[in-house]
Amino acid sequence: MNNKISKFILAALAVGMISLGSVGIVNANNHTDTSWDIILPRYRGNAYTNPRLKTDKSRTYVKCSQVGKGHINVWAQKSDGVEISNPKYRLGPNQSVRMYNRAYEIYGRVKIRLAIESQEGYFVHVHANGKWSPDSVK
Q1: What's the pLDDT score for residue 2?
Q2: Mind giving me the DSSP string for 70-136?
Q3: Do the beta carbons of residue 44 and residue 121 sit within 8 Å?
Q4: Which of 13, 34, 71, 100 is deepest in the core (most CB within 10 A)?
Q5: Is residue 22 classed as helix, strand or coil in its secondary structure?
Q6: Three-class SS of residue 15?
Q7: CA–CA gap between residue 24 and residue 28 (Å, rounded)
Q8: CA distance 39 to 22
Q9: What global pTM score does this model have?
Q10: What is the CA radius of gyration of the chain?
Q11: First to last CA, the chain
Q12: Which of 43, 38, 14 is nearest to 116 (CA)?
């Protein structure tokens, strides 16, 4: 009797381990938000965040918390300046977007950055801040 129970328990454990093995491992992506605080140059000049590693096909998350005047345009680039998202996304204070880009599909795991410009061609510098992550929660 005990031998039958032991065999049943071992069989159940084996099935359980096989089931767990077929589920696979979920890869953690790089979705932790990083703050950015930028003074934008005059006349729609660009400013950039520090690059971060893009680890999957999810969209890049960007939130504009404050902008000193008007709106900003944001888009993604590889760390070397190669454009990887189109179109530019327009954000105002307290607006966010999950930007489509093909960085991971084209380059695999690659460092990307945000490019940011003021929406209008102001004669003054514009202050803006917010947060971003190269990957977003799926």
Answers
A1: 61
A2: S-EEEEEEETTS-B---S-EEE-TTEEEEE---HHHHHSSEEEEEEEEESS--SS-EEEEEEEESS-
A3: yes
A4: 71
A5: helix
A6: helix
A7: 13
A8: 50
A9: 0.75
A10: 23
A11: 49
A12: 38
